[in-house]
Amino acid sequence: MTQTSLPKVAILATGGTIAGRAGSSLSHEYKAGSATGAELVDAVPELARVAEVQVEQVCNIASSNMVFEVWRTLAARIDALFLADPDLAGIVVTHGTNTLEETAYFLNLTVRHDRPVVLVGSQRPATALSPDGPLNLVNAVRVAACPDSRSRGVLVMLNDEINAARDVTKTNTYRVETFRSGDLGFIGYADADRVAYYRRPEKRHTVDSEFAAVPVGALPKVEIVYGYVESDARVVIDALRAASTRGFVFTGTGAGMLSDVEKEIVAQSQARGDGLVFVRSNRLGNGRVLAHGEHDDLGIVPADNLNPQKARILLMCALARTHDLAEIRRIFTQY
Length: 335
Prior knowledge:
CATH class of the largest domain: Alpha Beta
Number of strands: 14
Oligomer: single chain
């Protein structure tokens, strides 16, 4: 790459609101994944001033319909693009916001390169009166092209804010400032003058991840059980266990605490020796779930500060490698 050339960035399009179209510029009802990635890029000529962009359409769906097969395709394609082109500065994945954080965290665990992968979406469709997608896309390409973005893991870029894939979650149904990293905060800005970073994610990711060492295959079935007053968790878990579920993440109350009924379910599972693995997260959105004697004695793994949906992804990846509880505890400590 010569000094006068623009950085090269690949865009992998998957659909979502950023590619959505409505019948009216004022309507909140629209069809996600109506425009192609190429159409998104063509609609933002400013991209040509930022990077040399190439576009591929991976799928074109609402992210509520995201599936593991697309995750595997994305991980494999990202690795292939980086391997094939050492001059490729980074990759942007356009994505619907509903499950964007889950795709981002899966890629954070499985991508094998230190060059930036940036997920981007929008809260308003392309046909809205004031769409946020075009500027989000420009900023995502800028972040992907920025050398300072290297070795920070997979990133999420919306509303001028850069968040780490592990920490970020969607927090609002319609507001453009929906993506937040709770108590930890975002890690940088994409402002008009430059991409500015202020911290690095400390947990293992991408090239430092043991899950990036081998090709991603089939993922074991893991489900989430939500905690609330007098829940019928036994019926839920028994039904899911019969459907070949290998692990469960409890969305515990408070500091990830389980009811006596839930603890009894785990104890009975252990007595049967059915090999199920249980993890404790929480429903609060902030704070750590700590080791706790009563739960630890039952072999339940604390999820630290991972939210339930991300704890599920990590448990799936862990179970694809091991069923040893000590190893799974280590994994939840390091990731």
